[in-house]
Specification:
Layout: H1 3-23, H2 28-49
Length: about 60
């Protein structure tokens, strides 16, 4: 994946989080949980894109 696509995805995710945090009325704890989940997902995706972890389809959870 070219670096410009990675930057575009990060900007889009950031704008979406900003819109959700600014304009959608929600309890503060729910917003914090949403932000943490999105940030963790983006970090895992970035690690996969840059090859620091293997392909995400090979990760198994449970049995």
């Amino acid at each position: 994946m070219p670096l410009i696509h990675v930057v575009i995805v990060l900007v889009v995710v950031g704008v979406i989080l900003w819109v959700i945090n600014s304009y959608i009325p929600m309890q503060a704890t729910i917003k914090k949980i949403l932000n943490v989940v999105v940030i963790i997902a983006v970090i895992i995706w970035l690690l996969s894109v840059f090859g620091l972890i293997g392909n995400l389809s090979t990760i198994r959870i449970g049995k």
